[in-house]
Design brief:
The complex is a heterodimer of chains A (195) and B (195).
Chain A: H1 9-22, E1 28-29, H2 34-51, H3 58-64, E2 65-70, E3 73-78, E4 95-96, E5 102-112, E6 116-127, E7 138-143, E8 157-160, E9 168-169, H4 175-183
Antiparallel strand pairs in A: 1-6, 2-3, 3-5, 4-5, 5-6, 6-7, 7-8, 8-9
Helix pairs in contact in A: 2-3, 2-4
Chain B: E1 8-9, H1 11-21, E2 28-32, H2 38-49, E3 54-58, H3 63-70, E4 77-81, H4 88-96, E5 107-111, H5 113-122, H6 124-130, E6 134-137, H7 146-160, H8 164-172, H9 180-188
Parallel strand pairs in B: 1-6, 2-5, 2-6, 3-4, 4-5
Helix pairs in contact in B: 1-2, 5-6
Classes of the chains: A alpha+beta (195), B alpha/beta (195).
Amino acid sequence: MISDKHVPEAVVDRSRALQTRVLAGPPLLTAMSPQRLFTTMRTHLTKAAEDGRLKTSFANVMAQLRLAPQGEEFTIYGARLESANFKRSRAEPHFLRQDGAWFDFMVTGRGTAGRGLEILAYSCEIRFPDELLTFPRFVRFDLNPPGHANESAAMRCHMHPGHNDLQVVAPFIGPLEILDLCIHGLTWPAKQRSI
Amino acid sequence: MMPATLAPINLSEFAARVALHGDKAGSIFALIADAPGSAEELQDELNVFSEQPVRTLAAEKTAEATIHALIGATGTLTILSGLHVFTAVDWTEFDQLRNRLLQAGTTVMVMPLKTLGLLQDLAPNLSSWLGGRVWRWDESAAALSPPEIEARLMTLRASSGKSDDDVVALAKSGALPAEPEYAEWLVLLGQGGLI
């Protein structure tokens, strides 16, 4: 969000309105439980492993997808349990695509009686092979937790296009849509355009 | 006769095994599950994996009517539930009519453990046909154990320089840092209600 004190108030207002438009209310998944969401995500990932879209084996997908149910809230770890991998080391757990892109993710949510699941936060980073010289090294999609004091000073729903300090407003992306992006999306042509 | 132990399996792996088996007339699998809605959940997962159409079928009032509903559906994967209503007579009849299942597609029977016991005792030929294709639905392997939760908390403390108490205090004062990891942290502490 544009929050620099030197920009006109009207610009800040438009930026605030943009955020509201991107995420008008709590992101809900109806008719879902934490276990159900977890199972569905695991099935999509294991199917991708079986189809060869992922180089990560079926067994490793299952080993790296974990669930922490603690009361009503939960976190689904996609190769994120050991490390958030800030250094982007291939030695850390990750899911590897056939084309060399690799990714991990985490989704935190809350089961709400009768309303399904509320997605509270997520973080998903996909990294590109080093051979793609003109590509950014990574793209990360984040949903920050709601309601903290600095929510108004940062975009709750945003992406980082290749740099931690660079944030761009992004739509809310549901957990299965995150998997779609990571498994099937963010690809590149054989001959890339120049920057 | 009840097997000493039934191999545990999660829903994604079970769906993958059934789909991998392919379309073979008269193939039978059994998934032991006590939770209501198991058949519908399995259908969702099989729809991801299977190239065949998948349908659910509740057991009819008699074994003969149930088998009649199963046959003729070659090329279709049928999830058969509601078998707990079968009486001893039904199971005996089902056993006698089992060869008619060769005219059916792949059948996955979803039933509670008690029902499997009846099948094994009263339909020994069907039980033999089923062989080792019986698993117990178990999702517990994906859940984080207490030592894993503690290990993850240690990672979060080390990477942030904060203690659990710091994070709870920040959340209570509305000053929780924006990153998704702080939501995850509160969930692991059983303090997800503060998010």
